[in-house]
Write a structure and sequence with these properties.
CATH topology: PH-domain like
Shape: globular
Helix content: 25-40%
Largest sheet: 4 strands, antiparallel
CATH architecture: Roll
Radius of gyration: 14 Å
Distance between the termini: 42 Å
Strand order of the largest sheet: 1-2-3-4
């Protein structure tokens, strides 16, 4: 199993206890605290077809699926929600995939969305 597959499996494992019946994981990524070489994993963002789960030591927080993370740039991308979360650039593909999945879901729900 390759690196990307192990990361996806880790995200799915952390999400499993917090998913509703039939809920599907779309992607996920880790956030960090600290700076430079002193960063440590903090929370895991799990993006599903119904919600965004922020899984941490204290359990999981469920947010609406309409959250956009924005285009990641630099070494750390900041996501501002209930607080600021930092995503290392190694997870940027997953951040982009989450926004693309949301765009596809919204386009599917509203076929005229591309015309606006």
């Amino acid at each position: 199993m390759g690196y990307k597959e192990r990361r996806a499996e880790m995200i799915a494992t952390q999400a499993a206890p917090h998913l509703e019946p039939g809920e599907q994981v779309q992607t996920g990524f880790m956030t960090v605290t600290g700076w430079g070489i002193f960063t440590v994993p903090a929370e895991t963002f799990v993006v599903t077809d119904r919600a965004i789960l922020i899984v941490g030591r204290g359990g999981a927080q469920r947010l609406p699926r309409d959250v956009r993370f924005g285009k990641p740039t630099g070494i750390y991308h900041r996501i501002k929600l209930d607080r600021t979360y930092k995503v290392h650039r190694q997870w940027y593909q997953e951040v982009i995939a989450a926004d693309e999945a949301l765009r596809e879901m919204q386009t599917h729900d509203d076929p005229t969305a591309d015309e606006h």
